[in-house]
Please model this.
Amino acid sequence: MDCGAHEGLIATLGRLEEKMDAMGERQIDYIQRTVRIEGIVTNGLSHNIIDIKGKLDTFCGDTEKRIAELETFSWFRTWVNDLRTKLFKYVLYVGLAGGALYFMIRYSDDIMKKVLR
Model:
């Protein structure tokens, strides 16, 4: 029952089967590479995240210590902040008082002469 038409069909089917096998092997290789790359990325990211977490814990601990130390000097900070807030007002008062004193010294003779006249 073998005829020439069947031989060509059988040869074509053989080539198709070989191509399908090669495609399957490439897909399996691609999947394995993808899994390996995913594992490398996941491990790398988890190590980076662990390192970052450790650095942040250290930084936060140091910052908390510094804040606690600054809080012990809160009385000084309060005093300096109040001084800074009131400084303009005090400078203005001193300037007005100095101007009034200058005016009184400079023009007191003229005023006294006019009043006593």
